[in-house]
Amino acid sequence: MSERAQSHVVGVVVLLGLTAIAMGGLTATIGTIVDEQTASADASRVATDFDSALRPVETTGYRAGDVSFASGHLGVERRQLRVLNTSGVVASVRTDALVFESGQRHVAAVAGAIARGRGASTWLTKRPPITSGPDVLVVGAQRLNGSGSVSGTGGVTTALTTNVTHDRRALGDDEYRVAIETAAPGAFESYATERGRNASVRDLDGDGVPSVVIEYAGTRRAYLVVHDMRLEVGDG
Fold first, then answer.
1. Is residue 213 within 8 Å of residue 178, measured between CB atoms?
2. Bridging pattern class, strands 136-143 and 211-228
C-alpha cells in the first residue's frame, strides 16, 4: 500500500473517532437536557398537585388528592410559624412542611404557601394565608400534623389525604411580626417586599433552618387561625 493510501486510511479512522466522540458528547448533552426538563416538569406538576390537594382555608373535614412525579422523594419536615409582638413570641405553631425533592428540584408546602427552588433562586406559586388591613392582622397557619413519606423512580402517584379543622385565637392589639420558618427564605422575602413590608432572615431556634420575619408596622388587632390538616402521605 502506498504512503498516500495509508495516510487516507489513517485519516478516515481519525475522522470516525472524532465523529464518535462528538456523537457521544452530543448524546450526553441531550440526556442531560432531557433529565433537566423531566425534573422541571416534575416540580411544576408537584406544585400544582400540592395546591389542589392541600386547601387549608377552603376545606373543613375530609379531602383527598393525588401527587405524581417521575422520580424523587416526598415527605414531611419540621417547620415553625411564630407571631411576635413588642414583647416577644406571642404564639407559635408547628406547621411543618410537605417537601418534594428530586436532584436540585425542590417544592415545599409550608404555612399555607407553596415555594419552589433552592438557595437564592426561589419563588412562591401560592402565597401564605395572611391578611392585613390598617387596623387588623389575620394570620393563617397551615398545621400539617402529618405522617408518611414516599420515594420512587419510573413514575410515582401517591395520595394526600387531610381531615381539616379550624381554630381561631385573638391575640390582642399590638405591633406584630410574623416569622415563617422555611428552606426557601428568598421567596418569602420577595413576598414581603412586594407588599411594602420590611423583612429579615434569622435562625430563631438554632436548628439551621432560617425564618423570614415580616414586619406589620402600626398597632393592629391580630388573630391567629390554625388550620389543622391531619395529613397522611400515601398510607400514612
1. yes
2. parallel
Q: pLDDT value at position 163? A: 96
Q: Contact 141/112 with Cβ under 8 angstroms?
A: yes
Q: What φ, ψ does residue 75 adopt, rounded to 5°?
A: -165, 180
Spatial contact of 182 and 188, defined as CB atoms under 8 Å apart:
yes
* pLDDT per residue as tens digits for the range 137-168: 999 999 999 989 999 888 999 999 999 999 99
> In the structure, what pLDDT confidence band is assigned to residue 14 with cuts at 50, 70 and 90?
low
Residue 100 in contact with residue 72, Cβ under 8 Å? Answer: yes
Kindly tell me if the per-residue pLDDT of 11 is higher than 80.
Answer: no
Q: Decide if pLDDT at 16 tops 80.
A: no
Burial bucket for residue 194 (CB in 10 Å: 0-12, 13-18, 19+): exposed
Distance between CA 49 and CA 69 in Å, rounded?
A: 10
In order, the DSSP letters of the chain are --HHHHHHHHHHHHHHHHHHHHHHHHHHHHHHHHHHHHHHHHHHHHHHHHHHH--TTT--EEEEEEEEESSEEEEEE---EEEEETTEEEEEE---EEEEEETTEEEEEETTEEEEEETTEEEEEE--SEEE-SSEEEEEEEE---B--EEESS-EEEEEEEEEEEEEEEEEEEEEEEEEE-S-HHHHHHHHHHTT--EEEE-SSSSS--EEEEEEEEEEEEEEEEEE---EETT-
